[in-house]
Amino acid sequence: MAAETTYQLNDAPKLTVAFTSGGSPADPTTVTASVRKPDGTVTNYTVTAGGIVKDSVGNYHLIVTADVAGRWSYKFAGTGTVTDTEQGVFYVIPDWTVTNPTFYLTPDELKSTLSMGAFTAADVDLSVAIIVASRALDNLCQRRFWKDAVDVTRYYSPDDSRLLEIDDLAALTTLSSDDDGTYAYANSWVQNTDFLLEPLNASSEVPARPWTHIRCIPQANFTFNTFFPRSVKVVGKFGWPSLPDEVPLATGMLATRLLRLSREAPFGVVAFDGGAIRIARMDSNIMAVVGPLMKHRVSVA
Fold this sequence. Notes:
Layout: E1 6-8, E2 14-18, E3 20-21, E4 24-25, E5 30-36, E6 42-46, E7 53-56, E8 59-63, E9 70-79, E10 84-93, H1 107-113, H2 123-141, E11 152-156, E12 163-177, E13 187-188, E14 195-198, E15 211-216, E16 232-238, H3 246-263, E17 269-272, E18 275-278, H4 283-290
Parallel strand pairs: 1-10
Antiparallel strand pairs: 2-8, 3-4, 5-6, 5-9, 7-8, 9-10, 11-16, 12-13, 12-15, 12-16, 14-15, 17-18
Helix pairs in contact: 2-3, 3-4
């Protein structure tokens, strides 16, 4: 069985299998295949109605659409006249373009930092390290640094009638509330008349920061209903207005450390194509870089 190790997102990998009996090509009575995506979805295929194509005696292939980034696995199974299984894995590289802001660094940027040039043998490791590092920084900071591409609706249950903490908000479209438990959200709030977004100067900072609170104006028409849960509806783009420079820097530092750990490099050195990259401990440095960006700030010794 032969298959490419890596594919780009939305490529069409051709998965192949060769069945033999006594050293010669032979056809099983039935041939099936199962493909597992990175999100856990499993799809089963057959020859008669499911996409598996017979190329010649004992040789079959299946073409799938690599529509989810990450590690895929697959297994061919033959039964009857030939009983055998063949399995493999391949990796789908994420879309690193500006249309996908959820990753804070690209493999090419990390290669440049590590002076790896056009070296491609470690592309999968680089991709995995960047993905893991990006999500680890989100978890560490208790927030994400990319914003929604389209409006998203979120609901909140206030515990204060005049101040509401919300998720990081980059752009507000509408704010409405419910007073009677019908969840019709009949109260339409007007910004700077009924409420203020805080921090007040968040959009003026460099880089711009998100709004994290909604405060009722004293003379406003409404207050937050603390009796009914889920009484406030916020529609807008959540996340950060723009990516702070600290985040790609910290992502590269953490991804480099993850590369070193995954390869179990002796003496803190990772070898690439005859060269060497020395990696020092960076945990305290990462904390120093992203500490001020944490939702609940911590001091860095």
